[in-house]
């Protein structure tokens, strides 16, 4: 299971930017080979963490799944309050919760497909905004009503997030606090504390390395990230999940050259084996932990 990935992610309005606009044929050409390779390696499930307003296209996901054999889990929710369009940014907690529940229990638009996870996130600036807090609270209510879990964009300001989830009565093992390993926020993230509170922790930016030809600003040295992960799983294996946060076909920006979801099979798992991690632990990380997390719990 690739627990935090993107079929195509872009900021709101990217579909109107002619500089970066792609035809459907171009998007298929970029995406299908990556998913087919993922499936050939043994990948079964790809969790698309692209929220409302950021390029989510469920009919496209259904087509890709049929072509590649990969089960794609779509999400409801938002990457962060700063990516929510004004209609949603002005909405109440009750309205947002109703929107999330509808997409989980009835379906996303007219696609006939239902969301399997809820996405929330911390806006730029490093602290949750009032809108972020409304979205987190709405997500907690929707998770309780439907049994689906929550993925977060960033695990900074976790104290505020955990307080909201506690007020709403949501068990923290239903929340995956993401991007604990990225080069910008790793030192600001209380990953072991989150695990001690009961939350799950996502090391899900594997592959964004300073060794890349053109590394992004959130890159981190490969060995540094791996060592961080090894220290964490030594103490909190049951709370750990890993992924690459790759973007199969970036929307409105060039993306990161040379980085795909298949880093999991081509680099991460070999690195774990080379570090002495046994097969049972690898299965725990990429099969058992995500399966438990994704299972609907009513």
Helix and strand topology:
Elements (H helix, E strand, L loop, with lengths): L1 E4 L18 H18 L3 E4 L9 H11 L2 E3 L1 E3 L8 H4 L3 H13 L11 E5 L8 H17 L3 E4 L4 H11 L6 E3 L13 H7 L2 E4 L18 H15 L3 E3 L20 H12 L4 H16 L4
Parallel strand pairs: 1-2, 2-3, 4-5, 5-6, 6-7, 7-8, 8-9
Helix pairs in contact: 4-5, 5-6
Shape: globular
Strand numbers in spatial order across the main sheet: 4-5-6-7-8-9
What is the rounded distance between the termini? 22 Å
CATH top level class name: Alpha Beta
CATH fold call: TIM Barrel
CATH architecture: Alpha-Beta Barrel
CATH superfamily: Metal-dependent hydrolases
Uncertain runs are none
Order of H and E elements: EHEHEEHHEHEHEHEHEHH
Major pleated sheet: 6 strands, parallel
Q: What structural category arises from helix and sheet content?
A: alpha/beta
What share of residues is helical? 40-55%
Q: Give the overall average pLDDT.
A: 97
Rg result: 18 Å
Strand content: 5-15%
Report the total helices: 10
Counted up, domains total 1
Count of DSSP strands: 9
